[in-house]
Amino acid sequence: MIDHISIGVSDLERSLRFYELTLAPLGLAKVVTRPATIGFGKAYPEFWINLRPNMTPVAADSGNHVCLRAKSTGDVDAFHEAALKAGGVSDGAPGYRPHERVRYYAAFIRDPDGNRVEAVTFPGE
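^ Catechol 2,3-dioxygenase, sequence as received from the core. Prediction below:
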């Protein structure tokens, strides 16, 4: 249903370094570079970062977040660890999340601009 997503970042180079490391465990790499935007994906850009130089940090209570699919719990763990090493902040350590319909494993991070990004997998799917 969704073809691609994009988020705003205040510093494109900083965010490029952050997301190259953070998205690698999910199999996403930089595939397009333009003056004010960079696209990450497997075969085509699925996740874009867009330069917004006057952007203020995203408020923790904004309610916005992006969720990316991981192949395994190990990939979710690696995503979280890579984000922390790259300068992100944990917003939910890797683990199983209670839900009435499905059993899922996820981790949440905040990038240097406060964007909330989740990696999720569904063990036993």
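The mean pLDDT is 95.
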